[in-house]
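User: I've been trying to design a sequence by hand for this structure and keep getting stuck. Would you show me what you'd pick, starting by listing the structure so we're on the same page?

Assistant: Good idea, let's start from the same input. This is the structure you sent:
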């Protein structure tokens, strides 16, 4: 598994579920206390469930037990043998489309439990498949533990789980989810050295989400992870971080902890797209808009990154704070360029409304990095290599001269609709003319109808704009090898 060191999961054999409108895919989490959760430690479901909701993905967790987060089939203190004993009854009553299995603890190394765990795991899968042959199994390699020697068998167990999936893959819809890779019991568990803390739960959630996205229809995702832009409170922000608020249709408000969702394709073309949604700096649809961009662009090999920048409230200087977050996102992506197989000089940004406002503000700063900075990140450029400005909101910039357009701006692709009252076409044309005046490559596409959200994913009414973008970027030679 060394060659997959940075992957969130290994896809061996999986077909996505066709989910009809109003019929969300059902998911059954099956396991021990790590699946069940408790007050004394964190649970991956506490992170995973809100993330799925914020991405506006249709799903429903089911199971015989329920807590404040979701339904599940997690049983504290129980091993794989117990799960086998209840598997037929449980799945008969809760026949989920997807079953997530994380089991392997609650044995003793001195008993040499690995062969029995593997045998019981395979039997669980067989019991489930007898009821539903089309079920999708997400089988986890279990998280490591520092409770030794009791759990010293876990590394061998994880090797055998990998072999089990390889053996079953020809006849079973199964995905191996490598929960062990990147999980450090020294930093990711509570004092018992077994159960996840907040950091560990976040890592587990990211791995599960990477496996769930293809199973839920987003088939082009190879790997997923979510990064916090800043270590600790962001610069200029309060030391007190507020809680986000979920809004309708996957939107969020009150963002004080900016993040970047990374979606990596199977065959990267070397270009990264940072998606910046709008919402007047008070709300964001970074989840559903990001997923929509994933479905549109990952098939072409683009690495898609969805930015969740700071909002007001709580920010008291939101334009500046959001711009800092955009700069940080560019630097983070470039810092991971080798790992993600992208060209650090082919990192673009796609913005919608306030997101476009933030991108153009950022580009006008022309921050190419501080070569003398002690921070390696700050030495990297925070200038996008190209930008898409959809429904550019002008927010307090009444004249083109207020932007400070200059000759070092990156090429721009501008999108507008004639019936957009918040971002008038005349303003977009004036921006395009200002670009041409300083000899910066620019293309403007104007549509008759669609309003302010005409270009928004997942279902833009100006449906062909991505095709026009592809043609434009090819002309820039930004998506072909240099």
């Amino acid at each position: 598994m060394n060659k997959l060191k940075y992957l969130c999961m290994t896809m061996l054999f999986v077909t996505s579920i066709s989910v009809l409108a109003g019929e969300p895919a059902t998911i059954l989490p099956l396991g021990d206390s790590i699946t069940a959760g408790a007050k004394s430690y964190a649970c991956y479901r506490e992170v995973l469930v809100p993330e799925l909701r914020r991405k506006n993905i249709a799903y429903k967790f089911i199971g015989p037990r329920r807590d404040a987060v979701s339904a599940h089939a997690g049983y504290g203190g129980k091993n794989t043998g117990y799960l086998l004993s209840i598997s037929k009854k449980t799945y008969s009553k809760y026949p989920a489309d997807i079953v997530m299995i994380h089991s392997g603890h609650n044995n003793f190394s001195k008993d040499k439990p690995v062969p029995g765990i593997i045998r019981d795991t395979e039997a669980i899968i067989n019991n489930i498949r007898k009821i539903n042959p089309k079920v999708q199994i997400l089988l986890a390699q279990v998280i490591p533990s520092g409770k030794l020697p009791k759990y010293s068998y876990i590394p061998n167990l994880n090797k055998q789980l990998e072999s089990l999936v390889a053996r079953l893959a020809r006849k079973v819809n199964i995905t191996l989810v490598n929960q062990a890779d990147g999980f450090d019991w020294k930093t990711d568990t509570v004092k018992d050295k077994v159960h996840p803390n907040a950091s560990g739960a976040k890592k587990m959630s990211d791995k599960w989400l990477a496996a769930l996205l293809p199973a839920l229809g987003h088939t082009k995702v190879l790997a997923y992870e979510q990064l916090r832009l800043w270590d600790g409170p962001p610069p200029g922000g309060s030391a007190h971080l507020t809680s986000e608020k979920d809004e309708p249709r996957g939107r969020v408000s009150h963002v004080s902890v900016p993040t970047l969702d990374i979606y990596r394709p199977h065959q990267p073309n070397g270009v990264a797209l940072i998606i910046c949604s709008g919402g007047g700096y008070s709300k964001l649809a970074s989840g559903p808009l990001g997923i929509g961009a994933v479905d549109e662009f990952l098939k072409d090999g683009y690495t898609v990154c969805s930015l969740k920048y700071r909002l007001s409230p709580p920010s008291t200087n939101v334009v500046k704070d959001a711009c800092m977050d955009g700069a940080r996102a560019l630097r983070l992506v470039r810092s991971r360029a080798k790992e993600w197989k992208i060209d650090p000089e082919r990192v673009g940004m796609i913005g919608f409304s306030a997101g476009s406002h933030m991108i153009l503000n950022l580009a006008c700063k022309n921050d190419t990095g501080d070569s003398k900075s002690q921070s390696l990140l700050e030495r990297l450029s925070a200038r996008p290599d190209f930008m898409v400005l959809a429904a550019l909101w002008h927010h307090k910039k009444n004249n083109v001269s207020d932007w400070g357009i200059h000759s070092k701006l990156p090429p721009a692709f501008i999108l507008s609709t004639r019936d957009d009252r918040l971002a008038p076409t005349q303003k977009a044309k004036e921006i395009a003319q200002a670009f041409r005046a300083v000899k910066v490559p620019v293309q403007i596409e104007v549509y008759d109808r669609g309003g302010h959200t005409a270009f928004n994913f997942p279902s833009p009414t100006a449906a062909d704009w991505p095709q026009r973008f592809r043609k434009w970027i090819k002309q820039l030679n930004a998506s072909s090898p240099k």
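That's my pick for every position. To get oriented when you compare it with your attempt: The first strand starts at residue 10 and ends at 13. Residues 2-219 form a domain with the Rossmann fold fold (CATH 3.40.50.1110).
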